[in-house]
Design goal:
about 40% helix; 12 helices; alpha/beta; 8 strands; 6-stranded mixed β-sheet; two-stranded antiparallel sheet
């Protein structure tokens, strides 16, 4: 069975750029610490999952459609890139990352017109028709895609966690298919999405679990006060679901294009970076 690894490029780039203990520079004085970490993780994840297909998806900041629904969407994120020198931003290392990916024949794409998450979702739907799909990201929004063929990998070496259907139900108590509803009620501080007051994680998980078991929201054991808040906040929940649920897009790439050069991946991180010219260009 095919095993497709989809890597959330910006999520990994930011982890590596800000997570490495100190900056490393190549012979021309260009910072490459994020590149070193990024490519190292890509190679390790391929081996960890025994992947047969790989693609990296980078974000081009296409949140306009969701902002039309909710202008405050991601309004808590202050991008001060213009006030920083280019080498101080994670994006300064993308060109070196792409050179290393090109060397390994790993496909990468940029989202157009919408967010990378939507592209990743559409790629996952395409991939699970052929086999298993693993999404490498620490973004919990991808939990809505988990099923018998789609899992979310939070890679941390020996501490890695694979969120499959069994793991999700054990942690949340309900099916991944209702994760959009859960997050729409709880809210998402990371994206500045406000939920329903008084409905925290535990209470919402129990509420949705009861709904799945009984087939009705009215049979919930919630207090009358909270039931009233949910009824009053119905429009907020429906709005949030439109924002959180992924949109269908054309990824403009075919499944057959998502391979990689296994021999070059086996060369290891240092050799790949050297042959891609990262150390001296």
């Amino acid at each position: 069975m095919e095993r497709l690894l989809i890597i959330d490029g910006n999520n990994l780039l930011f982890q590596m750029f800000y997570g490495m203990p100190s900056a490393v520079y190549n012979e021309k004085g260009w910072p490459i610490h994020g590149t070193i970490g990024f490519i190292s993780f890509v190679i390790k994840e391929i081996k960890y999952l025994e992947a047969t297909k790989v693609i990296v998806v980078f974000d081009s900041d296409g949140a306009e459609e969701r902002m039309e629904i909710y202008p405050e969407y991601k309004g808590n994120r202050v991008d001060d890139w213009d006030e920083m020198s280019f080498t101080e931003t994670p994006f300064s290392q993308e060109e070196h990352i792409k050179k290393a990916l090109d060397y390994m024949d790993i496909k990468y794409i940029y989202s157009e017109g919408t967010e990378a998450d939507d592209y990743i979702s559409s790629l996952a739907l395409m991939g699970k028709e052929k086999g298993e799909v693993f999404i490498s990201s620490f973004d919990s929004d991808f939990f809505q895609l988990i099923d018998d063929r789609v899992s979310v990998l939070r890679y941390r070496g020996k501490s890695s966690v694979l969120w499959d259907r069994e793991k999700f139900i054990k942690e949340y108590g309900f099916s991944p298919s209702n994760f959009v509803l859960y997050k729409s009620i709880v809210g998402d501080a990371a994206d500045n999405i406000k939920g329903i007051e008084g409905m925290g994680r535990k209470r919402t998980s129990s509420f949705i679990k009861e709904y799945e078991e009984r087939g009705s929201f009215s049979d919930s054991s919630l207090s009358l006060r909270l039931k009233g808040k949910l009824r009053a906040g119905r429009e907020i929940i429906e709005r949030n679901m439109k924002i959180i649920r992924f949109m269908d897009v054309d990824p403009k790439v075919g499944y057959e294009e998502l391979g990689f050069d296994g021999n070059r991946v086996e060369e290891g991180n240092s050799k790949v970076l050297e042959k891609a010219g990262v150390f001296n260009e």
